[in-house]
Amino acid sequence: MSLAGHTSDSAPLFSSDSEADGLEEHSRPTNEQEAPASGVSALRALLTVLVLCYINLLNYMDRFTVAGVLPEIENFFGIDDGKSGLLQTVFICSYMFLAPCFGYLGDRYNRKYIMSVGILFWALVTLASSFTPKEHFWVLLLTRGLVGVGEASYSTIAPTIIADLYVKDRRTNMLSCFYFAIPVGSGLGYIVGSQVSSAVKNWHWALRVTPGLGLVAVLLLLFVVQEPKRGAVEARAEEQLHRTSWLTDMRALSRNLSFVLSTFGFTAVAFVTGSLALWAPTFLFRAAVFTGEKAPCSETHCSSSDSLNFGIITCVSGVLGVASGVAVSRRLRTKTARADPLVCAAGLLLSAPFLYLAIVFAESSTIATYVFIFLGETFLSMNWAIVADILLYVVVPTRRATAEAVQIVLSHLLGDAGSPYLIGVVSDYMRKTDSFLWQFRSLQLSLLLCSFVAVVGGAFFLATALFIEKDRNRAENYAPTEDEPIVVPKSGRSTRVPVSSVLI
């Protein structure tokens, strides 16, 4: 029985127990061996993963809708590349700084209610951002920053629910489905944003698509998703699952070299994807204007075909990259326990030359540019599901949401929180005149930084491979020391006590 005691079927928000605990108290199965260890039936677990995938897709769709209509936003507000980059930076910063808060809550309280509140707030703020007047660009910055609140509540917690429903290969498969939503959602953001804007000749309407879908997501969370028992599917002894204090968790994570190094490797992925996500459609549009293939923006509208094409490429390459990364990793696991970080390293190192070629060929061959972007994004996408799986098996269950939050903070702080703004600032600095040539050339030169960062990220994953076996074994055989303080929730409050006083 849980240390936190009895909970109801509805599992209150400030209860640390799962809904499954409450259901078990009211109606225990006659054959306990047939009951899932997580307390959630196989069908309900599958439905839970599908709902989480839908919300993940929706989050990324909303995040990249702005990138799909960025030329129109620049034209509407009359802003330069530096200010345009801030649209992504302010969002990532709020998302990043709030992630540890939601990680802390996600390790201690009912996760589906935390996500429901966050996503409802996100939907309302996104809708409000679509009414920003022309004279108040700062309002758009503010609302985009607040959107990060909702995404932080979801991204830190959702993978830990999947981890509490499945183990080993099934967990990897479900995480793959979950992370398929990233490229597909990102691509849909470009496609839906650009096409809605093109249809109504007004970019504001592009931001009004996802809020309604967000309300549907809240209803699905409340009525379909069931909170599983934490760590139960991993068949650990009960004394191994006590929650320790936040400081103890942080000390343990800082000594986990596989977690630290893979986080820095993932930071490189975030830097590259953040830069390309915001600037690639604009870069392709400027290349077409410079070569005379397209006309510049009119007073009210810009060509949307580049955002559409980039969105399609992002969807297809992302699905192919995630699937191939998981497939290659699974095959290599039979030969080496270091397969996961090695596949991540190979993905980044292979993406670097193709991204470089895509940027260089933009002014001479549109077809070659799209081919190289496709190959570069495919290799880059091989990392998503594997990095998440690495975190889940080198960190014990009671620290996973905190670890997710720390990884989000570091990867965004050093990655895509600053990369869109940095690319924009460098572009503005290198631009000698405001001609179509230098609007294209300055952005081209600044984007070359992505290839260098991808190589650095590959090196971090190679270093991860040196420690992955030791850290995985440590997590699988984890047992608290006698003097390690744990946190025992009671009536919504926490008390730090020695392990020995609870186990007697």
From TrEMBL:
It is found in: Lysosome membrane. It catalyses: a 1-acyl-sn-glycero-3-phosphocholine(out) + H(+)(out) = a 1-acyl-sn-glycero-3-phosphocholine(in) + H(+)(in); a 1-acyl-sn-glycero-3-phosphoethanolamine(out) + H(+)(out) = a 1-acyl-sn-glycero-3-phosphoethanolamine(in) + H(+)(in); a 1-O-(1Z-alkenyl)-sn-glycero-3-phosphoethanolamine(out) + H(+)(out) = a 1-O-(1Z-alkenyl)-sn-glycero-3-phosphoethanolamine(in) + H(+)(in); a 1-O-(1Z-alkenyl)-sn-glycero-3-phosphocholine(out) + H(+)(out) = a 1-O-(1Z-alkenyl)-sn-glycero-3-phosphocholine(in) + H(+)(in). It comes from the Eukaryota. Residues 48-469 form the Major facilitator superfamily (MFS) profile domain. The chain crosses the membrane at residues 86-106, 113-131, 137-162, 174-193, 205-225, 259-280, 308-329, 341-361, 367-396, 408-426, 446-468. It is a multi-pass membrane protein. GO terms for molecular function: transmembrane transporter activity. Belongs to the major facilitator superfamily. Spinster (TC 2.A.1.49) family. This is Protein spinster homolog 1. The lineage of its organism: Eukaryota, Metazoa, Chordata, Craniata, Vertebrata.
